[in-house]
UniProtKB/TrEMBL annotation:
Lineage per the UniProt record: Bacteria, Bacillati, Actinomycetota, Actinomycetes, Kitasatosporales
Database matches in InterPro entries: THDP-binding, Transketo_C/PFOR_II, Transketolase-like_Pyr-bd, Transketolase_C
Name by which UniProt lists this protein: Alpha-ketoacid dehydrogenase subunit beta
Segments forming domain Transketolase-like pyrimidine-binding: 6-181
Superkingdom, taxonomy of origin: Bacteria
Pfam families: Transket_pyr, Transketolase_C
Record flagged with keyword Oxidoreductase: yes
Keywords assigned: Oxidoreductase, Thiamine pyrophosphate
CDD domains, sorted: TPP_PYR_E1-PDHc-beta_like (cd07036)
Entry annotated with the keyword Oxidoreductase: yes
Required cofactor(s): thiamine diphosphate
Biological source species: Streptomyces yaizuensis
Length: 326
């Protein structure tokens, strides 16, 4: 059947399976992705079905994994790299920023590096240090990288397909606390463009813009606000770099207000760029300043405190109150 109800994790697994079946140049590589099937079981069963030459268990060496993927891409392969947890990506940051992101420009367009780096990110799973980071802005700041994050199983399936097919390197952030959320996936639907935002819920009073794990929180906030007679529009940005400013602008021109929500710290987060750009574009439409809701400018806290750290329903609704008070 083309339409299935799947958890987000299974949708990613099916997407990888489809890519491996379709293109013999696609490889999956990373720590424990083979025999174990990944710590979140995203790659479960793939090595058994496609062999150790295409689903490759690597050493615990992120810099080496990404460096190897760059070499494979130069030889015509399409590597899909898994970084086991968000906080483990930093040993590979040099390879990603100084090599992967630069080769296309360095070669004046003659070299393409179709590498996808999958990173489970964000909190909400009660993990230890270095397992709950949200480093998307660090990569969005780097020219030459595309940065995306799905919020539901359908986007997980299709956005990963599109990322693998892209000739540019893509950092693919997977909201790990949504891995078990279920939704319908149509494996025969023709997807929209990878970097286009989507209106999840229409509204007239305030626009909530989010991506990845926070889309569900914003949708719940909109439902709660509706009980008080407030109409909130929810945008799933889907892509952090490039950003679909046109869709955001169109929404803000209707509502007159914008609140950007993400798990990452507000300080120098992606919401800052959105706020600045939309203020420039929509100055005469705005009825209130663009507000931001996100994590605090502190190291990610121990698991017992993460509910206080992560933006939740109350903090989003408080921002709605503040915006409507202007």
């Amino acid at each position: 059947m083309a339409v299935q109800r799947l958890p987000l994790a299974k949708a990613l697994n099916e997407s990888l399976r489809k890519a491996l079946e379709t293109d013999p140049k696609v490889l999956v590589m990373g720590e424990d992705v083979g025999k174990l099937g990944g710590v979140f079981r995203i790659t479960d069963g793939l090595q058994k079905d496609f062999g150790e030459d295409r689903v490759i268990d690597t050493p615990l060496a992120e810099s080496g994994i990404v460096g190897t993927a760059i070499g494979l891409a130069l030889r015509g392969y399409r590597p899909v790299v898994e970084i086991q947890f968000d906080g483990f990506v930093f040993p590979a940051y040099d390879q990603i920023v100084t090599q992967l992101a630069k080769q296309h420009a360095r070669a004046l367009g003659k070299i393409k590096l179709p590498v996808v780096i999958r990173i489970p990110y964000g909190g909400g799973i009660g993990a230890v240090e270095h397992h709950s980071e949200s480093p998307e802005s660090l990569f969005a700041h780097v020219a030459g990288l595309k940065v995306v994050s799905p919020a539901n199983p359908s986007d997980a399936y299709w956005m990963l397909q599109q990322a693998i097919q892209s000739d540019d390197p893509v950092i693919f952030f997977e909201p790990k606390r949504r891995y078990w959320d279920k939704g319908e996936v149509d494996t025969e639907a023709i997807p929209g463009p990878l970097h286009t935002a989507r209106v999840v819920r229409q509204g007239t009073d305030v626009t909530l813009a989010a991506y990845g794990p926070m889309v569900k929180v914003c949708t719940e906030a909109a439902a709660a606000a509706a009980e008080e007679g407030r109409s909130l529009e929810v945008l799933d940005l889907r892509s952090v770099s490039p950003l679909d400013f046109d869709t955001i602008q169109s929404s803000v021109e209707r509502t007159g207000r914008l609140i950007v929500v993400h798990e990452a710290p507000v300080f120098f987060g992606s919401g800052a760029e959105i706020a600045a750009r939309i203020t420039e574009r929509c100055f005469y439409h705005l009825e209130a300043p663009v507000l931001r809701v996100g994590g605090y400018h502190t190291p990610y806290p121990p698991a017992r405190l993460e509910d206080e750290y992560l933006p939740g329903l109350d903090r989003v609704l408080d921002a709605v109150d503040r915006s409507l008070a202007y």
